Amino acid sequence: MLTAKDNELTDTVAALTAAVAGHVRAMRTARGWSLDELAGRSGVSKGMVVQIEAARTNPSVGTLVRIADAFGVTVARLLEPAEERTVRVSAAADAPLLWRGGQGGFGRLLRGMNDPNFVELWEWSFAPGERHNSAEHAPGTREVLHVLSGELSVTVDGGEHVVSTGQTIDFLADRSHVYRNKGAEPVRVLMVVVVPSGEWDRRA
């Protein structure tokens, strides 16, 4: 039996799925791209693009990143409501959860800006043993992670770096990278992603 909380979560997911569908369809048609063109530029299959534009699927964070990179926008741009306000205050609990670990960890997008610069603010939590693999982002993308608690292992281009509570790591994220919690305690992280402007065609 669905509870009120379950219904609220379902409504939120449905609203986000509809927002992504509308934005992707509008951006693609505004550029005069076919479904095949967006699929080629993003590296996301045409079938998945069709599902996204029809609001029939809840795409993964990796898929959203690839599509956002192709358009030259942030992931937040694909999720934002139609209206934008000069001042916006939002609660972390209302931020979209775009990744869920098998042991209760999560990654949620707290806020994103597209003007004048492309910046995203994320909150991540990793339970012991959890990991998140991230493909390369658009060229020039940088990530800055500050560990609030625990110890996070960050592997960038095959090199592993251990970041402890109170430490910050920044790196070029236009290469594959992995986050892991190898310890026995949960890890909490704040992440800032700085995305260069401009569309990215993965075929190039």
SSE topology:
Elements: H1 4-30, H2 35-42, H3 46-53, H4 61-71, H5 75-79, E1 97-100, E2 106-113, E3 118-126, E4 131-134, E5 142-149, E6 151-156, E7 159-164, E8 168-172, E9 177-180, E10 187-195
Antiparallel strand pairs: 1-2, 2-3, 3-10, 4-9, 5-8, 5-10, 6-7, 6-9
Helix pairs in contact: 2-4
Structure description:
- One of its GO terms (molecular function) is DNA binding.
- By secondary structure, this protein is α+β, with helices and mostly antiparallel strands.
- It is 29% helix and 31% strand.
- It has helices spanning 4-30, 35-42, 46-53, 61-71, 75-79, and strands at residues 97-100, 106-113, 118-126, 131-134, 142-149, 151-156, 159-164, 168-172, 177-180, 187-195.
Structural class: alpha+beta
Shape: globular
Helical element count? Answer: 5
Q: From the 3D structure, determine the CATH topology of the largest domain.
A: Jelly Rolls
- What's the CATH C level of the largest domain? Mainly Beta
Strand content: 25-35%
**Cα-based radius of gyration, to the nearest Å:** 17 Å
Poorly predicted runs of 5 or more residues: 1-9
On the 0 to 100 scale, the average pLDDT is 90
Sum up the structure in keywords.
Transcriptional regulator, 6-stranded antiparallel sheet, 4-stranded antiparallel sheet, 5 helices, DNA-binding, globular, Jelly Rolls, disordered N terminus, DNA binding, 2 domains, alpha+beta, 434 Repressor (Amino-terminal Domain), 204 residues
